[in-house]
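Q: Hi! First time doing this. I have a protein sequence and I read that you can turn it into a structure. Is that right? Here it is:
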Amino acid sequence: METGLKGKKVIVTGGGSGIGRAAVLAFAAEGASVLVADINGAKALAAAEEARAAGVTAEAVVGDLGSPEVVDEVIRTALDVLGGVDVLVNNAGIMDDMSATADVTDETWERLIRINLTAPFLLTRAVLPHMRARGEGSIVFTASEASLRGGASGTAYTASKHGVMGLVKSTAVMYRDHGIRVNAIAPGGTATDISIGTPTSVDGPTALGRYAQNIGRVADAKEQAAAIVFLASDAASNVNGAILPVDNGWAAV
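A: Yes, that's right. Below is the predicted 3D structure, encoded as structure tokens:
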């Protein structure tokens, strides 16, 4: 498969661990330069070092991507160090505590929406002028099985990931005539270090537990990264506005 990614400049958020780290290394293996953005400084720096070991330019930016100042730093560093932005991977995200709607606290709701939806919106808005000026670009989001159904996670996480799906589709339509493609993967169960908070009541976990048997095999982070690289690459040149389940058939059950 010809990816056309050699020499491309890629931003990966949440790139210090899990799916993000696997994507950083997969892009580096294709010869792309990578900016690793993550709130965990040690992990961001380690992932960037691993990418450099593959012979590409790599840099790390540490901070909370829900902050406009951090987003500005990510874009500025990509332009100054990598020389531009060809691909944005909006991967950073957090889980909720599986709470049902009546049990979701204001703090949980606001935190999930800020990190899972507002942060990728801010980054997408920031890169679009640069991609539009060049007449091409690819943006890939990490959505979720919870983007496709109501029984995969708690209310706050599910709402945030449904919002991601809307952001993907709207942006794809708005910018397809400018050579910019916007897609997402929807991972099912995947072995990462993302943490789940302690539920505040039994309502959410009890309801969700009825559907847990449908999850199937738990994926490796590299399997999710391979799908991200595909959507970012020339091999998916006519794929736009798609939400690709990478879930061993969970979405088909």
